[in-house]
Amino acid sequence: xxxxxxxxxxxxxxxxxxxxxxxxxxxxxxxxxxxxxxxxxxxxxxxxxxxxxxxxxxxxxxxxxxxxxxxxxxxxxxxxxxxxxxxxxxxxxxxxxxxxxxxxxxxxxxxxxxxxxxxxxxxxxxxxxxxxxxxxxxxxxxxxxxxxxxxxxxxxxxxxxxxxxxxxxxxxxxxxxxxxxxxxxxxxxxxxxxxxxxxxxxxxxxxxxxxxxxxxxxxxxxxxxxxxxxxxxxxxxxxxxxxxxxxxxxxxxxxxxxxxxxxxxxxxxxxxxxxxxxxxxxxxxxxxxxxxxxxxxxxxxxxxxxxxxxxxxxxxxxxxxxxxxxxxxxxxxxxxxxxxxxxxxxxxxxxxxxxxxxxxxxxxxxxxxxxxxxxxxxxxxxxxxxxxxxxxxxxxxxxxxxxxxxxxxxxxxxxxxxxxxxxxxxxxxxxxxxxxxxxxxxxxxxxxxxxxxxxxxxxxxxxxxxxxxxxxxxxxxxxxxxxxxxxxxxxxxxxxxxxxxxxxxxxxxxxxxxxxxxxxxxxxxxxxxxxxxxxxxxxxxxxxxxxxxxxxxxxxxxxxxxxxxxxxxxxxxxxxxxxxxxxxxxxxxxxxxxxxxxxxxxxxxxxxxxxxxxxxxxxxxxxxxxxxxxxxxxxxxxxxxxxxxxxxxxxxxxxxxxx
Length: 659
Prior knowledge:
Structural class: mainly beta
Distance between the termini: 78 Å
Number of strands: 41
Helix content: under 10%
Strand content: 25-35%
Shape: elongated
Largest sheet: 6 strands, mixed
């Protein structure tokens, strides 16, 4: 047939460029008459360059030279060579070279993440022909990671980490940089650039949220049922380990289903497929489930009937702060079949001023006002109702005398006298609403069993003996098989920077409570201790107190401003999890800027700037919806959201001008 070679010229690599064919020992081009993606598919397959991403016309890679060998090529897509496709004949039309065709191929036939604890985290590899190639850390960015996670049905991108040094210098390395916009459905569709520097010191590790979809099954509406999550292309039931109202509310909001009303432990539980053993530890402020910390610690086990379930208020119910009560008649549309006596009243309950959401001062929302409860006759039975109502397990302690600080405003209830069996605190006998003989120094508080927390004891906030609060009790963590990487993960978890080490001098003393966990193993992919693997919870995990863990953290998180005329004005950037990133300008105001300026030693804020006033940054966008009061000592002390569920790009980078 005469033709013996095919190539792509003038592109970013061997898998993109102007289509050229060698025929009768001369290289020539292909004219773009009726050039389609099916034609490009045959070119890519013939060159072993994966699949076709684009079929291009009008000399996109420059004009070629020599004869125009092929014209009006018409491929089905399954031919083995381009010249096996239908065409009028070799050299049948003298086509000007400004009609030369071009092709962009994927260059690879697959991608995967390897070496992580799941298929949704690990070292990034792409398949070239029959070999898997490693992608360099410097060749991708966060938008590219987002495309990768989406293509793998692994949810949102969480992080990109600098992986290990290459141990095998003969390992194939992918030679192109990816420059995704972020809305591509496949990595193959992203623009790429040939990387001229052949060296690659670290591979890219991509961390995805792990779940690519979510739904409620077996309910009477789309807003009630058993929680099912899509993981690696398979739907499975979420285990009910640590499942509580804050986690359920985060999911309801993510589904546009309002707020969580209740968690029916005996409804919707029959299902097929795997049971996902991950758990979500939510604080109560998250707008979606992926914002919550994922918990693997403690190696939870779960059967198919131990399923997470929820009944949400419904798609029109985001303003309905719903309660279950004995003296209300109204049932919200869409939940009557599942609930029974749920009303659209305005009463709510929360715990305030504790370090986590399952401990704090008890506050009630009534008649549009938040208020407290007097500690007269306050005991464990009352506290049990509060913990149960909040999905926080059972009460460990009922606190009096404003243990969690004095509240303000109304004191709504006094002389509360629950049996412990009530479903809501306002179903318990008490004085009438607003009738009391108390002051705020008598505000009641509770500590619940599903309060899960971490701390360092007998040193300072960032050095000491490591303890975890579980099942109502603080206890030690054993150090067997613990690596420095695990110590670093603890420091990240506690916002104590990106450096840490296991102290061997035992200067922080010995514990006295349970020894809850042993054999904790964290990897570079983990930013929270809850995500790490460990033995199951056991109060006798250590053989003796000498195995308790002592940790010292270094390298506290950093803050800087970039692009201004000095170190006191510019784009706000924070160092977190090993890289600098920016802050989204949503809700950014002078109170937030004041905290930044004071933390930098730059006086007070002159202005809080938005829309990348000092230029667009790069890397992750670590925070959005920052809500400082202005009195905080550090930006990390302000309430804020992470960005796993929102769309914010660098044109919205926040900035400050300090005095």
